[in-house]
Design goal:
This protein has about 375 residues and is of the alpha/beta class. It has two domains: about 220 residues, TIM Barrel; about 130 residues, Lyase, Ornithine Decarboxylase, Chain A, domain 1, CATH 2.40.37. About 30% of the residues lie in helices and about 20% in strands. The protein contains eleven helices and 18 strands. Helix 2 crosses helix 4. The radius of gyration is 24 Å and the shape is elongated. The chain starts with a helix and ends with a strand. The N terminus is likely disordered.
Length: about 375
């Protein structure tokens, strides 16, 4: 059993997660928000398994820094948080995606989560479930001010708020929207969305309906548009040490080293000139080359580019780099870029280590440049402070 445990603790490909960096980032951002008067709450977004870090571990680190609220996209993500020790009675958990079946509604109520409602049907479903369980469920009204993804239009949102006020089993805990272009150069669209939301708040107040917790700002808006912070901000990307775009100002002290994919060298050899590498024999060596094999590949997320990145201006840039030959995959070994030779396979790659300053040996560890959300959940996450 000890041998099995040792193997499990030393995989050939894994992700290092720095919990101390996550906690430090949360503390830093909480401090910056405290300088705003009145200081908004910080809702830590831990969707998509905590942006690839591990949702429970990330949430636990953020909570230890003083974060008092969490949000996720789906009911199953929220269930995993609760199973991992996050108590919604102490630190509320908001689920962004509406539940649409009776079973989902019952499960959400049973866990004591906070739910998103986008229309009257969502309100009725949750009110019925909560009433049958003898509970009052806290709901957040999502308003579509320009994202066109989820939410009631501002024109009809007031009617949904009235229905919540009149319904047993549900209470309006918050009213929110999501910005579409807060990370873009021009903030005009974001300001327009905020104006629409503020107009709705005014209408609700005139009717004596409290909007509850008012929140709109994502990471980009929270850092660029102070007036959008309202009662709470929903921070995701920035908590994990990354900025949403080049237009978002740098945050002094933010630790970007929260996540690192790594793989071990499993085989080293010299190949002669003329040898072909990998599937399709797509690369032929021009000279004798020292090569190393690493146990990582596209099944782990290496070399995978999400389709969203291939669209629009970003997609054009990627295409140009490909045409110019500037997008050759690489790994970092002994502190330098080491090019991948041939095609990236499912779980094994070959790299050229001829120029490494020191002899590369089996067991050496390389850093694997990889998009966090593209990294396979099969890769073990190894946590350290």
């Amino acid at each position: 059993m000890d041998n099995i445990s040792a193997v499990a603790a030393e995989p050939n490909a894994w992700v290092d997660v720095n919990l101390a960096a996550l906690k430090s980032n949360a503390s830093l951002l909480l401090g910056k928000l405290a300088a705003t008067y009145p200081a908004p709450e910080l809702i830590a977004v831990v969707k998509a398994d905590g942006y690839g870090h591990g949702a429970v571990e990330a949430a636990t680190s953020f909570r230890s820094a003083g974060v008092g609220r969490f949000s996720v996209t789906s009911l199953d993500e929220a269930s995993a948080l609760v199973a991992g020790g996050i108590d919604p009675a102490q630190t509320p958990v908001l689920v962004f995606a509406p539940v649409v079946t009776k079973a989902q509604a019952w499960h959400l109520c049973d866990l004591g989560l906070e739910a998103t409602v986008c229309d009257a049907n969502h309100v009725r479903l949750l009110a019925a479930a909560a009433s049958q369980m003898g509970r009052t469920l806290r709901v957040h009204l999502k308003v579509d001010t320009g994202m066109a993804r989820l939410g009631e239009t501002p024109k009809h949102a007031l009617g949904v708020a009235r229905l919540i006020e009149a319904s047993q089993g549900v209470a309006l805990a918050g009213t929110y929207t999501h910005f579409a272009t807060a990370a873009d150069a021009d903030l005009a669209g974001t300001r327009a969305q905020l104006d629409r939301l503020m107009d709705l708040y005014d209408s609700m107040q005139r009717e004596g309906i409290s909007p509850g917790l008012r929140h709109a700002a994502n990471s980009a808006a929270a850092l660029r548009l102070p007036e959008s912070r309202l009662d709470a901000v929903r921070l995701g990307t920035v908590l994990y040490g990354q900025l949403p775009s080049k237009f978002v100002p740098q945050v002094e002290g933010l630790d970007s080293q929260t996540w690192s994919a790594r793989a071990r060298v499993v085989f080293v050899r010299d190949l002669p000139a003329g040898a072909s590498i990998g599937y399709g024999a797509e690369e032929t060596l021009r000279k004798r080359t020292r090569v190393a094999s690493l146990a990582v590949g596209f099944a782990d997320g290496f070399g995978m580019t999400p389709s969203s990145l291939l669209q629009g201006r970003r997609g054009l840039g990627i295409l140009l780099r490909h045409l110019l030959g500037n997008d050759r995959p690489f790994v970092l070994l002994q502190g330098q870029r080491v090019p991948v030779l041939g095609r990236i396979a499912m779980q094994i790659i070959v790299v050229d280590v001829s120029e490494c300053p020191n002899p590369v040996q089996s067991g050496d560890i390389a850093e694997i440049p990889m998009r966090r959300l593209a990294a396979s959940s099969r890769l073990p996450r190894l946590y350290h402070e």
